[in-house]
Structure formats: structure tokens, C-alpha cells
Design a protein that fits this description.
The chain has 221 residues and is of the alpha/beta class. It is built from eight helices and eight strands.
Length: 221
């Protein structure tokens, strides 16, 4: 969330392959007995499927279950009265596609936190080629001249940063320190979904998110 909120435009990379091992359709929350996953049920495909093509299971069972769990576990959180109605509003929309549900939830939370980041889906933009080509094309398609990355210097070497520089794009790296904040239950559990932080801090969560990351001067300029 910190990397997204520091950007002018967030391109939702919904043309990548959907995988159940990622958090494409899952949210990690803090329950009284420990962390738990809320999973959005989707229709399975026998072949490789792009994220933008993943359809939601069309019944209200999972929607009602998620809202009951959130109410049960967060009803005593400081900002439950402010945040829960926003979440419930998104769950009440008749989404058919997973990416629409996700981006709608993100936009609602951005509005609450007063983030001005514009959300654009990659599936709405022309792009092709390898990972580096796509990064360059998607960044330039939204008028960007700089890309923020959290994978610089890691073993995830799937971008040719020299080609990115040759395309005239700057690159900044995110230096992230996980924030600690008062949760409902002890002990503190890290790496939860952002909803946990927002239920705990309300709009002040925006400051916590901002303080969690630093973006040094461009590595490639």
C-alpha cells in the first residue's frame, strides 16, 4: 500500500496469470485466535487464466460470511463504525469479476484515506512482449516517467533495468519497514491486510503507511 500511495498512478497488473498462491483473492486479517484468511471464491479454469478474466462465484453466501467475520473480529476496534460501512458498501455491489471487486475496494479505501493515486487497469492499455517491455509500455501509457520498485537488489531478477533506463524512465526503490501499531489482540501480528491497520487507526493510517517506506533518489536516472 505504501508504494501505491506514493505513486501518481497505480497500474493494476491484471493481465498476469491468476494464481491461488498469491493474494489475488485473499485478505489476511487478525482474529482473536490469530491470523486468518478471508478468501473470495472464484470459478476455476482448467487452463491458465489471466487475472482480468477471473469470475466471482455468484452467490451472497461468501459476501455475508466475510461481513459477519469482519464484524465479529473488529466490532470493538476504534474505527469500526467508520470503516465497516465502507467495506460493506463494496461487498454490496453486484461485481462479476474479481479485479472489479478488488479495485472497487481499493478505490473506496483510497478515498477514505485521502490518497490521490489514480487506479488504471493494465487490461485497458496496450502492452506486449517480455516483462521489461510491458513495464516500459504500461508506464509510458499512463504518462509516467518514473517507476517505483520493491524488487531492486533481490533475487527476483525479471526486469532488465538497463533497458528501462534506455527507454527514458527513472527507477526508484522502496525501502520498507513494517510499522507496529496497537491491534485488538496480543501479541502483535505483522503482514496483515491493510484493513487491520485502518480499523485500528482510521484516517491516521495514511500517516503510518507513509512513514513505513522511504524512496531514495532515483537508482536509474
Amino acid at each position: 500500500m505504501a508504494k501505491i500511495s506514493a505513486s501518481d498512478v497505480y497500474v493494476v497488473y491484471d493481465t498476469v496469470q491468476f494464481t491461488r498462491t498469491e493474494y489475488h483473492n485473499r485478505q489476511r486479517i487478525r482474529a482473536r485466535n490469530g491470523p486468518m484468511l478471508l478468501s473470495v471464491p472464484v470459478y476455476s479454469a482448467r487452463h491458465r487464466q489471466r487475472l482480468c478474466d477471473v469470475r466471482l462465484v455468484q452467490n451472497d453466501d461468501w459476501r455475508g460470511y466475510h461481513l459477519r467475520i469482519l464484524k465479529q473480529e473488529y466490532c470493538r476496534s476504534p474505527f469500526f463504525g467508520d470503516v465497516f460501512p465502507l467495506v460493506a458498501e463494496v461487498y454490496g455491489h453486484p461485481h462479476t469479476m474479481l479485479v472489479d471487486f478488488n479495485t472497487d475496494m481499493m478505490a473506496k479505501l483510497f478515498q477514505y484515506l485521502e490518497f490521490r493515486t489514480k487506479i488504471v487497469k493494465a487490461s485497458e492499455l496496450s502492452h506486449h512482449g517480455d516483462n521489461t517491455d510491458r513495464l516500459i509500455q504500461l508506464t509510458t501509457a499512463v504518462g509516467g516517467d518514473e517507476h517505483i520498485t520493491s524488487t531492486w537488489g533481490t533475487d527476483r531478477e525479471y526486469i532488465d533495468w538497463a533497458r528501462v533506463a534506455d527507454a527514458g524512465l527513472k527507477v526508484r526503490t522502496q525501502e520498507f519497514t513494517h510499522p507496529r501499531y496497537r491491534q485488538q489482540f496480543e501479541p502483535f501480528v505483522a503482514h496483515l491486510g491493510v484493513l487491520d491497520l485502518i480499523f485500528a487507526q482510521g484516517t491516521a493510517a495514511s500517516e503510518t503507511i507513509a512513514r513505513s517506506s522511504h524512496f531514495p533518489h532515483a537508482l536509474i536516472d
